Amino acid sequence: MTTVADSRVGLPPKRAGVGHWLAGFRAMLRWEITNMRLLLPITMMVQLLSGAGLVIGFGLLISDMPEQVALFLSTGAVVITLILVGVVMGPQLVAQQKLDGSYDFMWSLPVPRSASTCAWLVLNVFIAIPGMVGALLVAMWRYDVSFAVSWLVLPAILLTLVCGTLLGYAMAHSIPKPEITQLLTQFLIFAIFGFSPISYPAENLPGWLAELHEYLPFAHMANVVRDALTDGIAVDVGRSYIVLVAWTLLAAGLSGLVLGRRK
Amino acid sequence: MADDWVFRTVDVSKAYGETTANDRISIEVHPGEVYGLLGPNGAGKSTLVKQIIGLLKPDSGSITLGPFDLVDDPDAARQLCSYLPQAQMPIESFKIREAVHVTGLIRGGEDAAVRRRGEELIAALQLGEWAGTLGAKLSGGVRRLTGFIMATVWPGKIVILDEPTNDVDPLRRRLLWEQVRQLGSLGAAVILVTHNVMEAEKSVDRLAVINEGRLIAEGTPSSLKAEDRGRLRLELMLEPGAPTPDLPEFVRHDARVGNNLVMVIDEASATAGIEWSQRMMESAGAEEYALAATTLEDVYIRLTGHTSEEPR
Fold first, then answer.
1. Domain contains A3
2. Total-model pTM
3. Most buried of A158, B11, B54, B230, CB within 10 angstroms?
4. Among all residues of chain B, which has the CA nearest to that of A93?
5. What is the pLDDT of residues B132-189, one digit of tens each?
6. Which of B115, B183, B186, B312 to mutate to test the interface with A (most CBs of A within 10 A)?
7. Of residues A219, A90, A100, the one with CA closest to residue A160
8. pLDDT digits over A167-195, tens only?
9. Rounded-to-integer distance, Cα A2 and Cα A5, Å
10. Looking at the 3D structure of chain A, how many domains does it have?
11. What residues make up the domain containing A150?
12. Which residues in A lie closer than 8 A to residue B67 (C-beta atoms)?
């Protein structure tokens, strides 16, 4: 008869350990990539256009831009595209799963929660790269600036992406009503774009908001990415890394808590 | 069969605030068995299922499969149970073959064996024609069957199927029930969640009726029908909007769904029932009537006060 019959008489032992984790991670990554297949080209295109669009848009606001300002703004654009992937697009995908009823099926699958989360992170990294590269290339072409890319570019960008993605992930999974998640992501676009010192210095904000951003991750994301791409614009980068690592750990802990929790 | 485990829920209770979704539900399911979970919408079936697969935690009570405590160990629950939800599977971007294959891998199957078993199921349910088609382009019925294959390509010991035949055509329904039966020979037990009593009557070994969070009856279909032996079902179709007429004394129990009045009477009252129905057609706005043998549906109506065809 069927091929699984002989091996599946009696109760199997519980699967655990590194092999089980890796197999789950590989299979979930395959699921996530196939799942995004129809949307992936258009999502990457939108990322690319928003990255490039931001850089060009800044140029419309300020004519005759000095090089330092151009560097500041275009690295800000890079950071915004990275943040938007994690805290806006990701949560909206989770909300969609809750709306169409597939959420329960996905979480009934026998994959360690951390393996599913890592597959999700890898997918987000893939999606974010074109927008980031696009923003940088457009800035070089439009403002004739040159970036000083250091080896820190990899940790800076990964930390920014992972921190943002995990924050969005924890948020989307902990809010039961997907409609609320969708509203909140709309608000976050507004708050991050308009009221976070990413593409402008914190001094431009009212004192209390500037102070608040000392503890929120967004300004620090801009600082570490800027440090990795330019010379002499970013300051106090060590502190930024510390704040970001703390937020990443917090978001990972929250995600673990939310995903492990059964109501 | 070398399988000697038992799946048990003992006194499982779960409340959402003031609402009791499950009230001390105890069931027992054995390997090879197809066990029906019947009940009207909102009876608490889904809540019970979500506790079994580790998505919800019972307020009290235990859920075990052999030596595994599924409440304490939701990871084990997910490995041991496969689940076909009532909602369609999220496979817009997947070809049938891919969705089946990846799910089998996620469920811990070995690559070549998953592929083989997937192809067998695709052939058995006659889906070969669409095996390379994207989910977004499939009809509801074909997607439903694909979901069934995804849930059973590498089945756990407990396979939970929530309304598996929704949207499925009659021919493939029959093929699907054959595959449900085959799961037993793989050492699995099937928990069939449904509101379709007629279908359940034909396909389950035992069943539980759940209403308002409580298990109100359990047994084989024929043992549940025993009380209705020697009784008949009398159905009266009323004109749209007509009020329910006063019922004669020989009606044992009744339920109205839309314009359809379903009653159970003793065989001895058959003639009286026909005469009464004819009078209703002349004077009380009845359009037609039918007298038939009782089915599990009538038991279900007696127990729950609902018919299984009420809008969900």
1. no
2. 0.88
3. B54
4. B90
5. 999 999 999 999 999 999 999 999 999 999 999 999 999 999 999 999 999 988 889 9
6. B186
7. A219
8. 999 999 999 899 999 999 999 988 988 89
9. 6
10. 1
11. 18-261
12. 11
